[in-house]
Amino acid sequence: MAQFLWVCLGGAIGSGARFLVHSWLQPPGGEGFPAGTLAVNVVGSFLIAFVITICAGGDRLPTSAQTVLTAGVLGGFTTYSAFSWETLKCLQRGATTMAAVYVVATLLGCLGACACGCFVGKWIAA
Fold it and tell me: How far apart are CA 40 and CA 44, in angstroms?
């Protein structure tokens, strides 16, 4: 239960950091290129790979701390980091078809879900 609470706290920190970075980089009104979102996705992808790689096969960071950083802080910062890590692992294993399917399914699935959410939201609000 304690680790769960630490992950929740890390998620809150990551979400707050995402808000700050996004607010700093995104133009007022949210118009234009989504630089804030792109920045958190790219930085989060780097950080999750860095943390997992540097901790692999060593005792540099306790497993519980690694979980708080990856699932908590970076999970709150961006879930795109987990997607990037999983795709990279598929590519490293030589599972290029699986990686391609995952990328396309994620992109189309998430865009489709977003479009459906907008449709349903507008329908309910009407």
Answer: 6
The token duo for 110 is 């998430």
Determine contact, residues 7/71, Cβ cutoff 8 Å. Answer: yes
DSSP state for residue 94 in the 8-state scheme: T
Q: Are 108 and 47 in contact (CB under 8 A)?
A: no
- State the pTM of this model: 0.74
Residues in the chain: 126
Per-residue pLDDT tens digits for 8-59: 999 999 999 999 998 898 777 766 777 888 889 889 889 988 888 888 777 7
Long-range CB pairs of 39-47, under 8 A, 24+ apart, other chains included: 40/77, 40/78, 40/80, 41/78, 41/80, 41/81, 41/84, 43/77, 43/78, 44/74, 44/77, 44/78, 44/80, 44/81, 44/84, 45/78, 45/80, 45/81, 45/84, 45/85, 47/74, 47/77, 47/81
- Cβ atoms of 93 and 32 within 8 Å: the answer is no
